[in-house]
Amino acid sequence: EAQVTQNPRYLITVTGKKLTVTCSQNMNHEYMSWYRQDPGLGLRQIYYSMNVEVTDKGDVPEGYKVSRKEKRNFPLILESPSPNQTSLYFCASSFRRSSYEQYFGPGTRLTVT
Amino acid sequence: KNEVEQSPQNLTAQEGEFITINCSYSVGISALHWLQQHPGGGIVSLFMLSSGKKKHGRLIATINIQEKHSSLHITASHPRDSAVYICAATLRGGADGLTFGKGTHLIIQP
User: Fold this and answer.
1) Are strands A76-78 and A31-38 parallel, antiparallel or unpaired?
2) Cα Rg for chain A, rounded, in angstroms?
């Protein structure tokens, strides 16, 4: 089954404790991206990757890191999480660019206390 | 600034009604996406448009490039259509990626 998976689905952590949210797709897509969703602000792009070893900042990259060492995986790293990073996070992938159909992961609800 | 605007923010209708959700954007785009998000959070892509009109079942999406406007229509609405509908655009120039509208919260009452 074609899908984008994210882990964990739910995470409660404390300020400053490094964490990684994994994202994996099995569709051989070149393009992957991370978004956060907040009440009143909607969805906003954090980082995206056009292909292996190619990543770029989206609209809200501060406090986040990403890497794309393999085509299928695009982990989101929070090196020192803060409470303002409490949010619902989505990973997505598409064939080549954001102008192609997007396939979203199930979301990761992160709470930073 | 928000380059992608949606209306209405909230919409409550009766089962069977014809629904229209609007999306306007202020700059040139490569593509316009309509997404659906059910309670519980998952996001599904409904349509990706760069011109004209697409139809899938009871859902129809149209785009007018000259007027920088897109609409999502639902015919014969049903309670299972209750969800948040999100318009997103790939803007021309600048970084690749999606710029999202704030979403339309649709409730269809039986």
Assistant:
1) unpaired
2) 13
Tell me the C-alpha distance between B102 and B109, whole Å: 22
What is the per-residue pLDDT across B33-47, written as a single tens digit (0 to 9) for each?
Answer: 999 999 887 999 999
For residue B42, the chain A residues in CB contact (below 8 A) are 104, 106-107
List, in sequence order, every residue forming a beta bridge with A93; answer none if it has no partner.
Answer: A32, A103
**Which tens digits make up the pLDDT trace of B2-32?**
789 999 999 999 999 999 999 999 888 889 9
Torsion angles phi and psi, residue A84, rounded to 5: -75, 0
Q: From A36, which residue of chain B is nearest by alpha-carbon distance?
A: B100
User: Are B41 and A100 an interchain contact pair (Cβ–Cβ within 8 Å)?
Assistant: no
Burial class (CB in 10 A: 0-12, 13-18, 19+), A18: exposed
